[in-house]
Write a structure and sequence with these properties.
Layout: E1 5-7, E2 10-12, E3 17-19, E4 22-26, H1 33-44, E5 48-50, H2 51-59, H3 63-70, H4 72-89, E6 93-95, H5 104-113, E7 114-120, H6 123-130, H7 144-159, E8 164-167, H8 174-185, E9 192-194
Parallel strand pairs: 4-6, 4-7, 5-6, 7-8
Antiparallel strand pairs: 1-2, 2-3, 3-9
Helix pairs in contact: 1-8, 2-4, 3-4, 4-5
This protein binds adenosine-5'-diphosphate, shikimate-3-phosphate and magnesium ion.
Subunit structure: Monomer.
Pathway: Metabolic intermediate biosynthesis; chorismate biosynthesis; chorismate from D-erythrose 4-phosphate and phosphoenolpyruvate: step 5/7
Keywords: Amino-acid biosynthesis, Aromatic amino acid biosynthesis, ATP-binding, Cytoplasm, Kinase, Magnesium, Metal-binding, Nucleotide-binding, Transferase
Length: about 200
């Protein structure tokens, strides 16, 4: 991977790309924001940022511990702060938590300083990816599938406000998702320029 160079005009990445704005991945729990974001950043040779991981390392607690001890409103406050800071600090790939795009102030920050990409997947695909993991406090309910379905129905119209979309189905590998995000970004040379 070639050396990463930060400057005012963009982050010079490997493979002949220059990233002019942070690419912000949004969408439901299980959409692949963290996994695809990490792979996309590696492919481009740019920094990978994950708001949940930043919150966890700053608090030295896991997301479930933060929800349990301090509550969701406290977590949402931290999430906004962290997203604002990461958007200011460096250009890269920013994976958000599934609830981040719901707050209008977060959507405003993201649209002013980055470009949003909705990783869209059907409810059943999401469920298959999250059902075995206990790391998502919002799904610690008596009927986590119904909870996920309710969140899905409430949130889809908001994710649909993202600038770009990349679709994943049960068959789409993480590498294929990286290609789909790159295809979506090909329409935006103001964000990702290929030299
Ligand atoms: N396109 C995909 N193909 C296969 N597995 C995937 C894909 N996207 C995500 N996963 C897996 O699903 C799980 C949830 O993905 P994750 O990146 O944590 O989602 P999010 O950050 O959007 O909640 C992880 O185990 C991840 O490896
Ligand atoms: O959808 C949500 O509200 C949440 C999604 C999680 O992130 P992922 O979408 O990366 O799982 C994490 O931020 C927290 O558990 C809340
Ligand atoms: Mg994640």
């Amino acid at each position: 991977m070639s050396e990463i160079k930060h400057n005012t005009s963009g982050t010079e990445a490997g493979a002949g790309f220059v990233l002019h704005k942070t690419v912000v991945l949004v969408g439901m729990m299980g959409a692949g924001k963290t996994a695809v974001g990490r792979a996309l950043a590696a492919r481009l040779g740019v920094p990978f940022l994950d708001s949940d991981a930043e919150i966890e390392s700053a608090a030295n607690m896991t997301i479930p511990e933060i929800f349990e001890r301090d509550g969701e409103p406290f977590f949402r406050g931290k999430e906004s702060q962290v997203i604002g800071r990461l958007l200011d600090e460096e250009k890269g790939i920013l994976s958000t938590g599934g609830g981040a795009f719901l707050a209008e102030r977060n959507r405003t920050m993201i649209s002013e300083r980055g470009v949003s990409v909705w990783l869209r997947a059907d409810l059943e695909v999401l469920w298959n990816r999250v059902k075995h993991k206990d790391t998502r406090p919002l799904l610690r309910t008596v009927d986590p599938y119904a909870t996920l379905r309710n969140l899905y129905e409430q949130r889809v119209p908001i994710y649909a406000q993202a600038d770009l979309i990349a679709e994943s189905d049960g068959e789409t590998s993480i590498d294929n998702m990286v290609n789909r995000v790159l295809d979506a970004l090909a329409t935006r040379p103001d964000v990702l320029e290929q030299k």
